[in-house]
């Protein structure tokens, strides 16, 4: 029996997983909520690097590896590319297009956390939408700043940090209300692309707020690359063995 292994953890990956037949596997790192309503199998946890993934591909008779992880999950994608090459299993990837600044945007591109901190020095109330990384730095918040950090899971804050656990999609009205309540003077974001979390950028544009934007990491080339979920599902449907329900 030929099987597909889907590497996920994003909303796009979940949409693909919902289309898969029972014999295929959706793999999650385990950092977010685990879906319980899928027809396909669900695997939670790591593989033990590229070589562990090679063994899994062989043991589970995986005939196709589909990478629909987050655009910033560079290590996972690199391991997937290496494992697929070693195991001689085709490697497909969903590469969601990045957001592009518009004429009135004030985007300040940075490459790593130290550059984020330096770019934020003039500001007092940043809104972080980077995921969990700021949580490791709550004890180093400058005295003149108060942070709001939005991420997937609840986490304790402190007297200079508020943590919001929330999962997109986020609406434009909801983001406007958040900005009204928080009084933010800068937004910090990954360039994740997609519509689910883009509303914050529109609100920043409306209010002429700067955006400190973390550049995307370099990702490995895939045997086939797709820009949207529909393209992946159509290609799975066209395969010679049954994949999509």
TrEMBL record:
It holds the Pfam family CbiJ. InterPro entries: Precorrin-6x_reduct. Keywords: Cobalamin biosynthesis, Oxidoreductase. GO terms for biological process: cobalamin biosynthetic process. One of its GO terms (molecular function) is precorrin-6A reductase activity. Pathway: Cofactor biosynthesis; adenosylcobalamin biosynthesis. Signal peptide: none annotated. NCBIfam families: PRK08057.1-2 (NF005968), PRK08057.1-3 (NF005969). This is Precorrin-6A reductase.
């Amino acid at each position: 029996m030929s099987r597909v292994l889907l590497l996920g953890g994003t909303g796009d990956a979940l949409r693909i997983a919902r289309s898969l037949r029972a014999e295929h596997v959706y793999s999650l790192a385990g950092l977010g909520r685990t879906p319980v309503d899928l027809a396909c199998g669900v695997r939670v946890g790591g593989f033990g690097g590229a070589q562990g993934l090679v063994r899994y591909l062989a043991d589970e008779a995986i005939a196709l590896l589909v990478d629909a992880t987050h655009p910033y999950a560079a290590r996972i994608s690199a391991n997937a590319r290496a494992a697929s090459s070693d195991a001689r299993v085709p490697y497909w990837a969903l590469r969601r297009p990045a957001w592009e600044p518009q004429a009135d945007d004030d985007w300040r591109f940075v490459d790593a956390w130290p550059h984020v901190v330096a770019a934020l020095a003039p500001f007092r109330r940043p809104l972080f939408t980077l995921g969990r990384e700021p949580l490791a730095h709550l004890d180093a918040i400058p005295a003149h700043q108060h942070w709001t950090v939005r991420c997937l899971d609840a986490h304790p804050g402190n007297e200079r940090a508020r943590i919001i656990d929330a999962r997109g999609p986020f609406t434009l009205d909801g983001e406007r209300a958040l900005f009204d309540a928080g009084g933010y003077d800068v937004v910090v974001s990954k360039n994740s692309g997609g519509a689910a979390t883009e509303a914050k950028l529109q609100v920043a544009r409306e209010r002429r707020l700067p955006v400190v934007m973390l550049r995307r990491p370099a990702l490995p080339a895939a045997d086939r690359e797709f820009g949207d979920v529909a393209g992946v599902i159509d290609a799975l449907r066209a395969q010679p063995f049954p994949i999509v329900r």
